[in-house]
Amino acid sequence: MALHAPSTLLSTVKGDNSQMRALVTGGAGFFGSHIVDALRARGDDVVALDDLSTGDRANLDPGVPLIVTDISDREAVRDRLAGERFDAVVHAAAKTKVVESVAQPALYHRVIVNGTSNALDVAQLSGATRFVNISTGGALYGETPQCATEESPIEAPSPYGRYKAEAERLASSTPGLPAITLRFANIYGPRQRTDLEGGVIAIFAGAWKRGVPLMIYGDGSAERDYLYVADAVAAILAAVDGGATGSYNIGTGVATSVNDLVAQLTALLGPPKGVVRAAERAGELQRSCLDSSKAARERLWRFSVPLAEGLRRTVAA
Ligand SMILES: NC(=O)c1ccc[n+]([C@@H]2O[C@H](COP(=O)([O-])OP(=O)(O)OC[C@H]3O[C@@H](n4cnc5c(N)ncnc54)[C@H](O)[C@@H]3O)[C@@H](O)[C@H]2O)c1
After folding, report:
1. Residue 133's closest CA among 92, 184, 94, 162?
2. Is the pLDDT of residue 17 over 80?
3. What is the pLDDT of residues 281-311, one digit of tens each?
């Protein structure tokens, strides 16, 4: 098993020295483990919960308490967390694949909707005063010829997006629990899985490393808003610390095509070992992009790492 490679993404130390205790669900996953690292780096006490279905213990420092359980199993979650006190819950546990959700909607409903309900339950029982719900802009707004704002209609074409929208409604309607939902663009960076459970940048980087051809679905013109994980983590810390509630888009506002991505990776890594083209997959969007001006306007967050720099850091890691 690979050892936990310490995150060098953020080393923010809280100015007020107030330590808090946080639960991070999905804490052994790609994004969740970076959130755990960032909270610990500034002195917070963190417990991770994960069923390790796509996450990995090796993503976490051995000193991080990890509760291995299924977030959608209410009794098990209550049992394993009985008597725990948390100041904040960051809810990252989910099944995350658009195409898989079309094939397995019941699984996605159970993990995302029941899982969020249970995470909210834990937050209330443990006395938490802050709930950070991790959602997806990419799968929520459908096609976005213009980058979506929070006022854009929710037109989720996949079960993944629809259940994430349902989870948002649960988070915003839990009495007495201040909750914020962050709708993220496509996050990428170190620790993302390079097999088909990962994001396209990680999958491509893995293909380069193994010397196998890239698989491109459709003609490569599909565009996504790619957000470097350090920027995504910075939004989580701001959300944990602030008092804002409601929904915020967290993305760059820049849409990049798969073909452009391949060109940028080629500039860093040299030519790939070929490209295999396949038909477009059901549930995939042509263009997904997020307008995060609300987060910037309200001084919650703004993005700082451009794609070229994020790719350089990802490849270097
Ligand atoms: N990566 C992205 O581009 C992106 C974009 C928008 C939103 N998100 C959201 O960020 C969160 C983290 O996603 P990620 O990209 O790090 O994927 P990931 O698969 O690495 O993380 C999800 C984690 O949840 C765990 N998990 C899954 N089912 C569970 C269950 N039933 N009980 C407990 N744990 C369970 C997995 O083992 C994994 O560690 C998800 O909520 C996802 O929807 C990710």
Report:
1. 92
2. no
3. 876 789 999 999 999 999 999 999 999 999 9
Q: Ligand 1 centre from 271 Cα, in Å?
A: 31
Listed by start position, the domains of the chain span 21-187+227-252+289-304
Q: May I ask the CATH class of domain 21-187+227-252+289-304?
A: alpha beta
Pocket test for ligand 1, best of 68, 96, 110, 303 (most atoms within 8 A of CB): 96
The rounded radius of gyration (Å) of the Cα atoms in the chain is: 19
Looking at residue 11, its pLDDT comes to: 47
pLDDT digits (tens, 9 = 90+) for 203-214: 999 999 999 999
Quickly list H helices, 229-285. 229-241, 258-269
> Do residues 62 and 246 lie in contact, with contact meaning Cβ atoms separated by under 8 Å?
no
Which amino acid, one-letter code, is at 227?
L
Question: Quick one: CA torsion of 310, 225, 27, 15, rounded to 10 degrees?
Answer: 60
**What is the dihedral sign for C-alpha 206, 56, 35, 5?**
negative
Tokens of 111: 């993990």
Angle formed by the axes of helices 115-125 and 159-172, nearest 10°: 20
Active-site residue flag, 248 = no
**How far, rounded to the nearest angstrom, does the alpha carbon of residue 299 sit from its chain's CA centroid?**
21
Exposed, middle or buried: residue 280 (CB in 10 Å: 0-12, 13-18, 19+)? exposed
Instruction: For residue 11, report the distance from its CA to the centre of ligand 1, in Å.
Output: 23
Q: Whose CA is nearest to atom 2 of ligand 1?
A: 187
Length of the chain: 317
